[in-house]
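Structure ticket #2291
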Amino acid sequence: MARAGTRVARRRDGAARLGALPARDLPGGLRLAEARTPAARMKGLAGLDALPADLALRLLRCRSVHTFGMRFPLDLIWLSGDGEPVRVDRAVPPRRMKGCLRARSVVEASAGTADRFVAGLRP
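Resolution: structure written out below.
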């Protein structure tokens, strides 16, 4: 039993947080949640302990991101206005800033999963 004033550690995974967001299924059993509201964009993946390998978050109208508040590295898949990948940044560690001027949105996925999501995003 925890004493008063002590912090109880809780596991925070992305499945619970992203499950409430609008999403689309991609080939290969992948799921792409979309942060469409300012609140969803602000919360993003910060503070989570993990993100399942088959789940990612797409930030619409986005050309730059930061990984402050992250606890694990991310693969960033930058997408054009047509949804085509224009660049992939792999294993971006916490406390970094990244941007892509050609992008119109970005997909944030667990490090090491970008290739699966890129294949699933192509028409």
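Closing remark: The first helix runs from residue 14 to 18.
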